Amino acid sequence: MSRIVVWFKRDLRVADQPAWADAVAQARREGCRLVAMYALAPAVLADSPLSWRQWQMQRAAFEALASVLFECHIDLHVEIGEVTGTRRRRGADPAPGTQAELF
Predict the structure, then answer these.
(1) Residue pair 34/6 in contact by the 8 Å Cβ criterion
(2) Which residues of 11-46 are buried (b: 16+ CB within 10 A; e: fewer)?
(3) pLDDT (average), residues 29-33
(4) Residue 84, Cβ density class (10 Å: 0-12 exposed, 13-18 middle, ≥19 buried)
(5) Is the pTM of this model over 0.85?
(6) What is the DSSP string of the chain?
(7) How many domains does the chain divide into?
(8) Spatial CB neighbours of 55, under 8 Å, sequence gap ≥ 6
(9) Pairwise pLDDT comparison (33 vs 52), residue with the higher score
(10) Domain membership of residue 17 as a residue range
(11) What is the CATH number of the domain that holds 12?
(12) From edge to edge, which strands make up the β-sheet containing 99-101?
């Protein structure tokens, strides 16, 4: 079974996120499995200008995302490390099973 991988990067919302809505619609149309990915690169942590409070807000947003995805039976894969691979920008026509990056 093919799958659509959605990479959550900075914007962890799903309710009003056009790229997420596109991925969900495509998965339903094509009968694909939808997989969510969140990657945290060590370089981002080391060079981050975020304050402690901003990190706490980011953590709360991540926990809310994880909860929504769990309720929808969508896998959330969390990776710590540098991310490499292909990217699809919002508005491009995706090929089945490719990544869709959220900004």
Answers:
(1) yes
(2) ebebeebebbebbbebbeeeebebbbbbbeeeeeee
(3) 92
(4) exposed
(5) no
(6) --EEEEEESS----TT-HHHHHHHHHHHHHTPEEEEEEEE-HHHHHT----HHHHHHHHHHHHHHHHHHHHTT-EEEEEES---S----TTSPPPTT-EEE--
(7) 1
(8) 48
(9) 33
(10) 3-101
(11) 3.40.50.620
(12) 75-80, 33-40, 3-8, 99-101
* Cβ atoms of residues 8 and 37 within 8 Å: yes
* Confidence label for 57 from pLDDT (cuts 50, 70 and 90): confident
Q: Kindly list the distances between the CA atom of residue 21 and the CA atoms of 46, 59, 74, 101, in Å, as whole numbers in the listed order.
A: 32, 23, 14, 12
